[in-house]
Fold this protein.
Amino acid sequence: MALSFDKQVRAVVTGAGGGLGRAFCLELARRGARIVAADIDLAGAQETARLVGDLGGRAHPLACDVAERAQVEALAREAEALLGGTDLLINNAGVATAGPVDGIPQKDWEWIVGINLWGVIYGCQLFVPQMRAQGGGHVINVASSAGLLCMPMMAPYNVTKAGVVALSETMCAELKPAGIGVTVLCPTFFRTKIMESSRYHGEGSTLGRVHKMMDRAKMQAPDVARYALDAAAADQLYALPHDDGAWLWRLKRLIPERFYQTLVPRNLGRFTGGKR
């Protein structure tokens, strides 16, 4: 069952309290969807629901910590009760941490893996059975170009997002016969709330560079949300909205050894804030 906005789509969005998650909800409202907006910050989800209402739509705000399987299980039950099923699941909730691989505490590894990877796994485990039972659906897993390129100073973030890419690729082939489509979204930099909760270990100059790249991005959250929903409706597996990320991914696939052995080390200053 292909995703189509010609009929009213029943959508669940995690991390909906701001940033890209809020942009997804607003774009879904413009396309006539019924929405469950879930976030660990209930007030943020409620504000998103209010903004959806301003567009003439309706979103049900729910509190959910995606790192807790029991809470995602409760979200699936509530979504089914409120919407009567789920046509589109957007696993969007995420956090970031950065720093040298030997300088990031264990607790921060566990924190980011719990949200960025286990949160997506739980969502897929608990919503896919609903989609099977109703004859189809679509899942958008929000990864990052970091999951494709694995740049320095971002090991935990890279690991979690690469895991989301691998999960999505596996699901795409596995769930196709059940009429369930999968899209993995891999943007580069744009303004988002993720930096507000990020945990950084190292020089502040790197964080400043990231903020500058976010501000300079031509495609921001509303554009990324539109791109991803269009990709899902077209049943595309990979959604790479930013040209720079898509170009670098192609380059890495063409010359992987040289990419990591020569090109990345030569430009390491861009990631560390230092001169190399």
